[in-house]
Amino acid sequence: MRGANGVRDRLAWLLAEEIPRKNPLLREQWSLDDVALPDPVSYFSGDAPEELVKDTSVIVVNPRLLRSVRTGDISPTGEPEYHSRYSCRVYVWVKGPDWKRATEGRDNLAVCARLCLLQYPNLNNKIDPDAVTTDTGFRIEEDTYQEDFGVPVRIQASRTYAAAILSVDITVEEYVDDGSTIPPYGTVQELAAASFAVGPDIPFPGEE
């Protein structure tokens, strides 16, 4: 179990992997230039210091744990499984030459990020055709996805920052194996065959 930071890191990893792949395809399909759909310069997992966010960026902040439910399943070591739901937020910052281009870039980059999430709801873009299952222990709850758009901010002359906040719930399979101080089941008591006989007329050893 990695908790909130494990979900945050996985979400940031997927966006950092997929946005650079998807952006060129969307520009060609939608006939956009690299200002209307910019490439993020930085991806941050966690709260980024303000001085580091100097250009178009994607920031995944620590999610909020909503609930954790015990499922009844157990891990190979006998520990219980939990389904934990985290409310995740992704900040998309776009720096543009003016107000109009900044908002256009923000809107399109937000759509690109949404496509990445909906196309890979298990947060894994590594498709293995021989895999028995696509279960990764992560699941995006698609019906919780929301977008909010802030008012752009002029930073210098006509240059402008525009931001979008994407939010979605992610359900994670979690176990309490890590750092467990309880021995795995089956190792606390070990049975061994006795080398003596017992019966109605034969007392246990030490009871003679």
Q: Helix/strand/pairing class, anyone? A: alpha+beta
Beta-strand percentage range = 25-35%
Uncertain segments are none
The level of helicity is 10-25%
If classified by CATH, what would the architecture be? Answer: 2-Layer Sandwich
Describe the global form: elongated
Q: What's the number of helices? A: 2
Helix-strand pattern, N to C?
HEEEHEEE
Number of strands: 6
What is the radius of gyration computed over CA atoms, rounded to a whole number of angstroms? 26 Å
- Provide the CATH top-level class: Alpha Beta
Total number of domains: 1
Describe the structure.
This protein is of the alpha+beta class and 208 residues long. It has one domain (4-175): STM4215-like (2-Layer Sandwich), CATH 3.30.2000. Helix content is 23%, strand content 35%. The chain contains two helices and six strands. Strands 1, 2, 3, 4, 5 and 6 form a six-stranded mixed sheet that branches. It starts with a helix and ends in a 33-residue tail after the last strand.
What's the short story on this structure?
With 208 residues, the chain is an alpha+beta fold. The chain is built from two helices and six strands, in the order αβββαβββ. Strands 1, 2, 3, 4, 5 and 6 form a six-stranded mixed beta sheet that branches.
